[in-house]
Structures are given as structure tokens and as C-alpha cells.
Amino acid sequence: MFDSNKQSAGQRFTPLLPALLLGAVLSQMAWAGEPPGPRSLWHTLPNPPPVTSTPTPRKPWMLRDREIELDLPLLHILKDAGARPLPRMTIDLFDNITPELDVSSTVSRINDTAVIRGTFKPPVQGDFTFVITGNLLVGTIQIGPRIYKTDHIGNGRLLLVELDPDKMPRD
């Protein structure tokens, strides 16, 4: 009644099971080995809240500005001097310029403040200094002759500004 040459489906595929499992594990390792793409530390605020007070006139050394919003989880990682290695991070400037940060120094203070310094990964040549307090980031960025800064404009709101170094007042 039982033919020894006829095997059940389970018995026929049993030798394939280890190969399938090994293939699944190796494919997961291959996907895990690819580094994730960089995330932007901030992005343009799509609909900034209306200005409730009289806007401050633009200073002659301000070329352009826009309101930005920070990626708070990424900001907290950047602020933590013990968080190494850092995830890949970029900043979104003007004209689709998005240099990748190369942090060289993070000094964290007990008062929830950190000073972060670094340069940009090639091909971009420049440097940055950020001071992070709580959920706010103020800083300066220089890329070639261009200078940018972030300013706190009130109520946790931040402004990214491109400056004209030739029109800036001398100290």
C-alpha cells in the first residue's frame, strides 16, 4: 500500500529548508550592511506661523532668509557627546546645497547645552559651529566665501540666513 519511492511533499523539501534559511539570513546581512542615507538636521518650514508683531526690516548684509524646523531626534543625537558614531547628517541651505556634516568636536555642558564643531565631507569645503541649548540651535556656517547663520527668532522658531560678508559691519 505504501510505495517507498513516493515521498510526501514535506519530505521532499526538507533538504531545501537549510538552504532557504541560509539565503534569508545572508540577504538580511547584505541589506543591513548598506549604510542609510543621510538625514537633514533641518528643513524649511512649509507654512510658517503668521508674524504677530511688526517684522524687523531686513539688514543690508542679509541676502536671504527662511524659517526652518529642526529634526528634534537628530538634534538630540548630535548634542550627545557620547553618541558615536553619529548617523549621517546634512543641512539644507539655499539653492539645493546640502552638505554632509563631519563633526570633529562635541562639548556637552551640564546645563543642557552643547557646542558642536566640524567641517563638511568632500567635495564641500567649509566649517560650522553650532550651539545647541534645549531644542534650539544657533550657529554659523562657512562654505567658501558664503556665510550662513541660524538665529532664534522667538517662541522656539529658527531662521536660516545667508549673509553678505562685504556688507557686514566690522566689529
Mean pLDDT: 82
Strand content of the residues, in percent? 35-45%
Q: Give the CA-CA distance, first to last residue.
A: 102 Å
**Tally of extended strands?**
10
Domains, number = 1
Helicity level: 10-25%
The coarse silhouette is globular
Please explain how this structure is put together.
The structure is a single chain. This protein has 171 residues and is of the alpha+beta class. It has one domain. It is 18% helix and 37% strand. It is built from three helices and ten strands. The chain has helices spanning 9-13, 16-33, 72-79; strands spanning 39-40, 42-44, 62-70, 89-90, 101-108, 113-120, 126-133, 136-143, 146-154, 157-163. It has an eight-stranded antiparallel β-sheet, covered by helices on one side.
Task: Annotate the secondary structure layout.
Elements: H1 9-13, H2 16-33, E1 39-40, E2 42-44, E3 62-70, H3 72-79, E4 89-90, E5 101-108, E6 113-120, E7 126-133, E8 136-143, E9 146-154, E10 157-163
Parallel strand pairs: 1-4
Antiparallel strand pairs: 2-3, 3-10, 5-6, 6-7, 7-8, 8-9, 9-10
